[in-house]
Amino acid sequence: MHDLVGRKRSFCILGGLSGVCGVVLLGLSFAINNGPPPGATSTELANFAQQNYAKILWGAWMQAVGPVLIVLFAFVLVHLAGATQQLAGWMTFFGATILMTVSLIEITFYIGALYRDPAIMPFVGLNLISAVQHLYFMVAAPALFLPLGVILVRSGLLPRIFGYLALALASVFAALGVIFLLRLTLPGAVTAFAGVQALWWLAAAVTLMARSRRVSGISDALRFTERR
Questions:
Q1: Strand runs labelled E in 50-148
Q2: I need a labelling partner for 156 at 20 to 30 A (CA). Which of 8, 100, 146, 222 fits?
Q3: What's the domain range around 182?
């Protein structure tokens, strides 16, 4: 019994570390890859790409791997909450798939903007990045945070404030997606707001690790209830 509790605590800690590492990688990716200045000419874009070539590619790698670790943490929460066979659990998996798809598409255009042949490629890549960013607000973030918030409110796995905040984030992201639907390029303040979700993931991951002993008992009770 003691060994089982110890393994579950380790599972909580490793899941939390996955979330923390994912947030750190995302933060580093945006820190080293700020993007070219607005309205840059073709010559300026070529110079920017040449001077920041390694930073852009490393930033792309971090932006690809970071969400994978965050999604893994989200799946850990679903598992510990005993929601893997519930509709909210399935929808969390579905939302995570959408989020990863949107993220990887955006990263593809980051890399594509580095190509200099044809000469129009950097402009095409940057415009497509702006187009894809709409999807985070329209569907990707709401599709993940909404069902995950429902799970956390119902389960008590984490303090319920995390569940309510997840529901609030889903609502705000969806609202911003509608409000700025007619703007081809989202304002900087709107895209910057996307960073708020990183704070949620970080706080949730640290809380899971801090509550690992208590969560081990809660998850047992939740899975027993699910089987019944």
A1: none
A2: 100
A3: 2-227
